[in-house]
Amino acid sequence: MPPIKPRHAMPSQDPEQRRRNFEEVATGYLEPLALGESSRCLTCPKPGCYTGCPVNVNIKDFVALVKEGKYLDAYKKIKETNSLPAVCGRVCPQEEQCEKFCLIGKRNEPVAVGRLERFVADWAMEHGVEPEKPAPNGHKVAVVGSGPAGLTCAGDLAMKGYKVTVFEALHKAGGVLIYGIPEFRLPKRIVAAEVKNLEKLGVEIITNVVVGKSVTLDDLFADGYEAIFVGTGAGLPKFMGVPGETLNGVFSANEYLTRTNLMKAYLFPEYDTPIKHGKKVAVVGAGNVAMDCVRSALRHGADDAFVVYRRTEHEMTARKEEFEHAIEEGVVFHWLTNPVRVIGDENGWVKGLECVKMELGEPDESGRRRPVEVKGSNFVMDCDMVVVALGTSPNPLLSQTTPGLKTEKWGGLIVEEETNATTREGVYAGGDAVTGSATVILAMGAGKKAAKAIDEYIQKKSK
Amino acid sequence: MYKILSKRDLTDITKLFVVDAPFVARKAEPGQFVIVRVREEGERVPLTIADFDRGKGTVTVVIQEVGLTSKLINQLKPGDSFQDFVGPLGKPCPIEESGTVVLAGGGFGVAPVYPIAKKMKAEGKVHIVSIIGARTKDLLILEPEMRSVSDELIIITDDGSYGRKAFPTDIIKEMREKGTKIDRVIAIGPMVMMRAVANLTKTLGLPTYVSADPIMVDGTGMCGACRLTVGGKVKFACVDGPILDGHQVDFEEAIRRGKMYATEQKTALDHHHECQCGGGH
User: pTM score, two decimals?
Assistant: First the structure.
């Protein structure tokens, strides 16, 4: 066997330059790199990569088509099972999914499946590839929420001929892809293009409707929808629960990112929504959302942007790539550090964050070693802004106003493992609304599973 | 798009819009609010619902000019549209079943008081004493409307240019001195006015609702921009309110948080002015 060529690096903006702009960090493979990288694939007879993909993309076949330069066919192959390839190619944690199972990856670096997927999806976008609209099957389904779970469910059902209407509470479709993930990781024109593709498939998207407030699930059934998918995400921000959290200059990650991304506050005053430009910004938490916040803070002009986390690098939930990008851009990480109080100045603005040092004790229920406070180790970190990125829980708006829709104590909707059916007939759910905050691709996998179950439910009922 | 069917100038800086928004009208209740955007670049701002007509599918909002967004909204004309208009959001105002209710509306806070009074009047179970006021005569709004839904209407101005020269607290004190039994006070207006009323009624032991009007972004419980402390606990005005127990609200904090973007508000107005004069891009 010839030696395996090294994996082709992703072309990226220089860290010094990109830390001050909102343009995409990774600029994407051009054709020679895509051809080179795809040629590393061994086209295994029994590929492992496929089993690692929550939406079952036929990776072996699409990569083989890239190898042959048949990009349109590669795109069609991906689209058979994935409604949002340009998104997945950018934000999936491939290292834990497809690429983890790549045979080459056992001895060398795995084939860069995500980068190839992105190349193919971007190629299709540039070449104006249009989806074919399937023949209608005469059935109506409502989808609540236009995030990754809802869009995937809508796309899969539309491909089967269902008339799908997606209801979105915000003024733009995309959910977390639009309000949460920053422009520099996922340009909003990419999300808009993927949404447009779904509309061309026949999916109708109605924005500015808060299901549970503007309409109820019962109203939707009364309007003739035969099944409903709930993909309302996990929108409720967690705060630290420490004194000083309502001081001016303390923000939830959701607020900080929504202002930046959905409302385009980085273009203020061309856009009307303002944002505070902290000079010393503390971000509490070390997941992907925390990385998005701390890197956004640099782009908003912070001199110092740092992460405060009560555990260590080994326990953090951020993707390795996001963490490395943050380090390259100059983000500082304070491990084993836990905030106990936000300190304000005489006008009620943040001027510091009091923390304690932690040490790792015995493993907790998550299997990670539990951080324990070091008594008397309190110290103050200077900062003029605090962004709290400790995760989110499902928004209770819909479950509170829908009789028969049962949730776990912590707010997650209860669903059947096999079908994602909720405790109400004809109502299915998936994504963060069920699991609490997780990844885009897991939400998409759930949307896909629910679409299949909804199809079976309606077909069985209408026999 | 959400079309403006009619517009009324209530004062030089306060405008009333009747908007075609059947989705909102269908479920709207007094005390709730909508979030609007005026244009593609616009911010999301909350406006309390000032009236609604389920049959016609319309919702009425009242806007007083304070910053850029309210200025842009007030420039809209009948036939123009809001870019976005979503709701109804927040919890409805609880409606009393019996007794005497004092409804105090200050400035353009009279607008959200109106649908509450209207509903109470329609149910006919309570005696409604409305106190409506403004800094000066020219800023008083909705007098005829409020008269039609109140059993007693008291008009006050800070400068005495119309009605009595008094604050709502003076009137409530007088009512109590005269021995009027008050079962509920609902005060909606500027933060300082609500704080004054709540401070008084706390000492008098009168249950009091106020309507918080903090900065919001999504309005559905997602961002927490609107959080305030109520009875020592952090609440989100958008989902836990906006109607809140006035005796429990930390007004100092709410006032401080309301000023968070004062500098940016000025920047936005200056920028807009420059563009209008052709000095910008």
Answer: 0.95
